[in-house]
Amino acid sequence: MRYIRYAILAVIAAVLIVLALANRTMVTLTTLPEGLARVPGMAILEHSVEVPLFIVLFGGVLAGLLLGFVWEWVREHKQRADAARKQAEIKKLERELRRSQAKADEGKDEVLAMLDKTG
Which of 38, 90, 113, 119 has the most crowded CB, counting CB atoms within 10 A? Predict the structure, then answer.
């Protein structure tokens, strides 16, 4: 199974390398469109940078993955909180059970109390 995972990762790496080599042309990224940059006061936000196209592609994929992970983490908050509440309730009930068993075994011989605990 480990070798299959390595093979899949190698194929993905090869595809990404080929994609990067095929898209090496430089593109200009700007923060604002030309029309919006002409609005008074917006010139402060206007920046541009030239980067290879594959950086833009990989950056978009990475940003999408991060956004998806954060979105899913926020969406699952209710389930995590519910699981934490249930875990706390289980611990509380286990403590109560231990206390009640200790109280029931108070007058018994230690060996008999251990036998009762094992089943």
Answer: 113
